[in-house]
Write the structure tokens for this entry.
Amino acid sequence: MSWERSEMSGEWTGHFLMKIHALGLKESDFEKLMANSLADPVVEYNYFMYKVCGIAGLQTNLPFGTTFPLGTKYADAIDIAVYPTVVKLAVDMYDKLWADRVTGCLVEFGVAAGSWLAMQLDNMERCGMIRETWGFDSFEGLPSPDDHRDAPGWYSGQFANELADVAATLDLGSRPHLHLVPGWFSDSLRTPQAQAIKSIAYAKIDGDLYESAVDCLAFLKGRLSNGAVLMFDEWTHVLHQGETRAFFEWVPRVPEYRFELVGFINYRIFFRVWHVSVPDLKCEMA
Ligand SMILES: C[S@@+](CC[C@H](N)C(=O)[O-])C[C@H]1O[C@@H](n2cnc3c(N)ncnc32)[C@H](O)[C@@H]1O
């Protein structure tokens, strides 16, 4: 199954139709969508964003707020410059969860050296807002990327870190609320330890690759609390690749959730997840 334009097979169309029905759309919308998407993939992406989050016109088909490609000097400088703002938003989202009394733990899928977890832990401890915190990682780096479903540039073993070093950085021994679980998501999320996690307030998906995000999202079904934060660290802003692809494939499988877009900063995106069965609440971060 592929979303690639070069592979517009019957299977692809059938898959798309299933999505259209799952999202409660009409086939006349599908015709329009097909026509639009053939002409302009941005329209296709925005259409799905509109149907899932109620907001369109989100992006300019750039994964980054500049025309300079990632990995070049101006783009890297922008990335570094916005990082403190991303951290501010991430911490504010945690504080908001606490204020809204959203139940559950914090989970990061893809820990690497632990810098993100260190920041979240420091914030929660400084403010006395401690929750159980889980970090899942192979600690062997990324698995092999998929040529079609992942953006170019990733490689197997990227971001490998020794578990012992990460445990030392995060001061695991003196943090009883912190749990690091080594292994591939496809295995570690099936262990009794992971399966015992019943309620998640804050989930950060940072495994970079499509297949990794698929495993994490499958795990999140039935576990995200009403009002939970769902963050993707490697949002591709296109439907056919990476974490974005995994998310839009997952949405029809979780009709019990409604997604509110909090906002994105370059390739990091934040949603609040609301239970359809619970009356409306809104998150205002502006
Ligand atoms: C970009 S790094 C995470 C960075 C970290 N969250 C931070 O902000 O400091 C991605 C991590 O995801 C892990 N990862 C990716 N796919 C995985 C999988 N399928 N199973 C286990 N770990 C995976 C890699 O080992 C790597 O450490």
About this structure: Residues 1-12 have pLDDT under 50 and may be disordered. The two ends are 39 Å apart (CA to CA).
